[in-house]
Fold these 3 entries.
Entry 1:
Amino acid sequence: MQHGPAVRRRKLGAELRALRSRAGLTSGEAARLVGWHQSKVSRIETGTSSTKPADVRLLLDAYGVDDAQLRELMLALAGSVEGDGREHWWHAYRGVLPPTYRDFISLESQASAMRTLETTVVPGLLQTPAYARAVTRAAVEGLDEDRLDTLVEVRLARQDVLRARPPLRMDAVLDEAVLRREVGGPEVMAQQLERLVEAARLPQVRLQVLPFSAGAHIGVTGPFVIFSFSSASDLDVVVLDHLTSSLYLERKEDLQAYTEAFNALRAHALSPGDSLDYLAALGDARKEAP
C-alpha cells in the first residue's frame, strides 16, 4: 500500500517501459533520441523520481505513441496538465485540497469505469448539494463557511465525469445503512433518495442495494473504489479511504482480491431493478411520513 503519487509514478514508469519495449528501443537508445542520459530514463521507468509532462511527451513522441486517449492518461499520471497544456480544473483549489484528494480526483477524471462499495455515505458522484454540505461539515471539524462552500463546490464539480463524452461508467453497491443514516435531516435525505433514483436510471450508472438481510459480508471491512482505465489495464488501482489519507493498491493480487470481493457483494445485493424499486419505495415512504 502506498500513497497516490508514488503509485502513479510507478504506474507511469511501468507503462512507459512497456511502450519503449514495444518500440524496440533500449533505455540507452531512448535516452539518445530525446537527448538525455540513460539514468534519467531509468529513474522515470522505476518511478524513483517525479516526471514532468513535457518529458513524458518527448518519450511518447520518441516511441511513436499517437493514441490520444493513452497520451492524455500518461500526461495526467505525470502531473497537472492535459494534452493541450491546460491545467486540470481542480488545481485551482490546490490551496484547499490535500494532495491525496487531488490525486484521487485526477484518477477519477481519467478513469473509464469505477466500481465502488459504500458502507456509510452516498458516493460523492451521486450526492446532492445539501447532502454534500452535511457530510462535509460532519467529516471536517472547524470548517468556516467559505471553505465549506469550496469543498462542496469541488464535490459537485467532480460529478461532471458522469456527464462527459464518453461518461465514466459507475458500478456502485450501497449498504442499506447508507440509505437509513439520517444525514442532514429528513428533507435532505428525501432529496438524496430522489437523486439516487434518477442516477439508477442512467445508462452509465449501475446501483445495487446490499440489504441488512444479507448479514455479515466481505464489505464490512470498509468502503473501497476500483478505478479502471480503457487504454491500459495495468493502470487499474484500488483506493481505500482513511480519516487523514487515502491508500492505493496496485498489485495484481490486490486488484484480483478486491475485484472478487466486489463481485461477491454484487451477488448478495439486490438486482439493479429491485434496487431501483427499493430506492423509490423508500423515497415515497419518506414523503408520506409526517
Note: The radius of gyration is 21 Å.
Entry 2:
Amino acid sequence: MNPVFNQLLNINFPNDISLTIKREDLIHPFVSGNKFRKLKYNLLQAKAENKQMLLTFGGAFSNHIAAVAYAGKEQGFKTIGIIRGDELFDKIEENPTLKFAQENGMQFEFVSREEYRLKSETSYIEKLKDKFGDFYLVPEGGTNELAVKGCEEILTEEDAAFNYVCCAVGTGGTISGLINSALPNQKILGFPALKGDFLKDEIRIFAKKDNWDLISDYHFGGYGKVNLELIEFINAFFEENKVPLDPIYTGKMVFGVIDLIHKKYFPAHSKIILIHTGGLQGIDGMNIKLNQKKLPILKKQ
C-alpha cells in the first residue's frame, strides 16, 4: 500500500472556494483507489474461510475484474471472472483489461447478457459452485458490507476541514463508506456514472446517516458513454494539474463539481475534497473506442 495524499488544485474559483483531490489512485499500481479499499477486508475474510478461489462478475473493461485478478494472484488465490457478453470470447487479445486479467491468472466464463442478470440469484451461484467448486464470492463492483468497511477508511483526520466530500458512484459501496465515516459538518455528494434512480435504495442498505445526496446530471448519457466535451475536459485537467482522470467515473465527477462551482451551487468559502477512485487501467480500452470513432484519445502520462 502506497501513501495517499491530498493534492490542492491550483485553480482560482470565485467566492474563495478551494478544491482538493485525494489521490487514492496512487494507493497501489494495479489495485487502485476504491478497488483496493473494497477488496482489503474481503480478501482477509476469504483467507479466514480457507477459500482458495475468488469468483466475481464484470464487464469488458471492468476495473473490478482487473483488480481482482491482480489482487488474487498477489494473495495466492485462483480467480474466476464471469464476464458480461459472450461475444468477447475470442476478443481477449484486443481487450487491454481482459488481457491483463488473464495474464494475472484469471479464468473467464463469458455469458450472455440475459444470463449475467442472474448474478445475484442463489440458484445461479449454486450452479457456478457445481461447475467451479467452492469459491469466495466477490459481488459485481465489489460492494458488500466488508467493502463498505474498507471504504470507511478513505477519510482520515486530516480531512476534517472539508465541508464537501465528492465521489463518483457505481455500485454505491464507496459513497456508503464515506457517508458512514464523515463528520457531522460534512456533506457527501455522489455523482452516478449511470442513469437511473435505483442507486439511492442500494446506498441506503449500507449507509447509516442522511448526510448525502446524489447529483445525477453528469453521467454523459449513461455508463461508459463519453463525448468530445468530456474528453477535452479530462485532457485539459491533466495538462493543468498533472492528475489523470478516468472517463467512466472520476472524470465525470470532477467535471460535475467544477461545473457546479461555476453555477454557484456551493456556498462561499467551501472547502471541497474530491475522491479519486482510480480506474486508470480503463483508459487504454476507452482509447481503442475513441480511435474507432475518430475522436481524440485520453492522456494519462
Note: Residues 34-48 form the longest helix (15 residues).
Entry 3:
Amino acid sequence: MTEWDVKKLRILRTLRDRGTVTATAEALLMTPSAVSQQLTNLAKQLGVDLLEAQGRRVRLTDAAHLVLRHAEAVFAQLERAEAELTGYLRGEAGEVRVAAFSTAVPALVVPAVRLLRAGERPGPDVRVREAEAAQAYDLLTAGEVDLALSLAAHAPTARDPRFRLFPLLADPLDVALPADHPLAGAPALRLADLAADRWIFGGSGPWSEITTAACEAAGFVPEQAHSAAGWTAILALVEAGMGVALVPRMAARERREDVVMRVLETDRPRRHVVAAVRHGAESGAAVARVLAALTETARSFPETVQQN
C-alpha cells in the first residue's frame, strides 16, 4: 500500500497555496532545501512526479492536484479528530482564536463573547486578532486562528475544500452627509442623487471596491476626493463638509453630531459578512459554541437585515 505522509502532504498543499518553494519555506518556518527534499521524498513514496519545472519556478503536476483532492478529506477528518480530542481533554470550554475585521470586533465578536459568558456553562476562552480578509484566511490556513470573520466578497468560494463558510448577516450601507448638505433632509434619497458629490473612501482594499461597486450600480463613478480607511477619519472628513461616504450600519457607533446618516431604500446596498473555519473544525464543541453565539448575535442585531 502507498504510504501517505500527512506532514509532507501539508507541505505540498502549502506550495499550491503559496506558489513558490521560498514562500512555502517561509510559511512553514523551513529552509527551501528542506521543502524540496520533503517533496522529493513524498514523490518517491507515492511513485508519481509531483512537480515540474516552469522557468525558474516549479508547478504542481496533474498527479499532485489529484493527490491533494484526496488529501483535503484527510485534513478535514484530522481537524474533526483534533476538535473532538480538544473537547475531550478540555471540556466544552477550550480556546477559540478568532480573526475578524475591524467593525466586526465590537459589533459581533464582543457581543458574542458576552453571550457566552452569560450562559450557564463556561464558555470557550475567545482570543481575538484584528485582521482583514486576506490576512485572516492566511492565518486560518496556517492554523494560527480557528475562525475568521470577513466580508463575503473577499472570502474563498464555497467550493474551496479547505474551509466551511457560514453566512452571518447582510449589513446595509447608509450614506453619511454633512449636516448642512443640500440633500440632508431630502425625501427618498438615492445614490444617483449624489453623483456630482466628492466621495471619501479607501484608496484600495475591500471598502474601496464596495463603494465603487455600489456607485457604479447606481450609474456613476464616484469622484474620490479623499482617501481614508478608518471610520473615525472618514466621518471627521464628512463632518467638515469635505465629502460624502458610504458607511456600514455596523459602524453606526462612530456617528458624529454634525453628520447625517441617510438610508438608501431605493439602492439598498449591502455588504455580506461570513464566518469561516477549516473544514471539519466546525464539529468541535468550542468552535461550534462560538459559531452559535455569533449567529445569535447577528440575528439579534437591530439595525441589520438578515441574509436568507
Note: Residues 92-169+272-300 form a domain with the D-Maltodextrin-Binding Protein; domain 2 fold (CATH 3.40.190.10).
